[in-house]
């Protein structure tokens, strides 16, 4: 059963809330990054990725606030219908559960993250026959290589990770 409630809200409200939340999350991430001990050897330390993520979160937060200001200047109103899309929610949560199960069974980070990426893409309307699985495999591989080679962190290994070395 899907419930629908129609109401009118300022169009700038959502980007404003998301922008503030992203800035707060970026500040918290940056605060945590400075609490991490710096690396002992040469190269990138363990806090470098956290500082980069904090910077990206702050950039996204500022972009949302700019969008909220633009929409507020136009005094735009929109009518929303609050509906729960149970199929999309099932895709995303199913992908997360499947990723956890695959990690537990030793499938490794790359394959399990590819499955999560593909399920999330399907939850947002992409077809399984689209390029989503290929993009997921490429992004998962890049993330794995970055974390294991550049940051010297260990992620769960599976067959694909053993090929990379």
Key words describing this protein structure:
single chain, 165 residues, mainly alpha, flat
What is the straight-line distance between the termini? Answer: 49 Å
Radius of gyration: 20 Å
Strand order of the largest sheet: 1-2
Order of helices and strands: EHHEHHHH
Shape: flat
| Strand composition percent | 5-15%
List how many beta strands DSSP finds: 2
* Helix fraction bin: 55-70%
**Mean pLDDT over the full residue set:** 83
Low-confidence stretches: none
Q: Structural class, from secondary structure content?
A: mainly alpha
Number of helices: 6
Task: Outline the structure in words.
The protein is mostly helical. The model has no long low-confidence stretch (mean pLDDT 83). Helix 3 runs antiparallel to helix 4 (109-123). It has a two-stranded antiparallel sheet. The termini are far apart. The radius of gyration is 20 Å and the shape is flat. It contains 6 helices and 2 strands.
Task: Give the structure's gist in a few sentences.
This protein has 165 residues and is mainly alpha-helical.
Task: Produce the secondary structure layout.
Layout: E1 5-10, H1 13-35, H2 48-73, E2 77-82, H3 86-104, H4 109-123, H5 132-150, H6 159-164
Antiparallel strand pairs: 1-2
Helix pairs in contact: 1-2, 3-4, 4-5
């Amino acid at each position: 059963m899907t419930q629908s409630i129609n109401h009118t809200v300022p169009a700038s409200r959502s980007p404003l809330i998301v922008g503030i939340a992203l800035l707060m999350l970026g500040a918290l991430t940056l605060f945590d990054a400075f609490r991490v001990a710096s690396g002992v050897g040469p190269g990138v330390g363990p806090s470098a990725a956290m500082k980069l993520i904090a910077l990206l979160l702050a950039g996204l937060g500022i972009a949302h606030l700019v969008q909220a200001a633009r929409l507020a200047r136009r005094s735009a109103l929109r009518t929303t219908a609050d509906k729960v899309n149970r199929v999309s929610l099932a895709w995303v949560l199913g992908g997360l559960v499947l990723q956890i199960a695959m990690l537990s069974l030793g499938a490794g980070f790359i394959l399990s993250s590819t499955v999560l990426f593909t399920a999330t893409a399907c939850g947002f309307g992409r077809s399984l026959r689209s390029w989503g699985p290929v993009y997921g495999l490429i992004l998962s591989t890049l993330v794995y290589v970055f974390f294991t080679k550049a940051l010297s962190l260990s992620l769960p290994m599976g067959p694909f990770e053993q090929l990379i070395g």
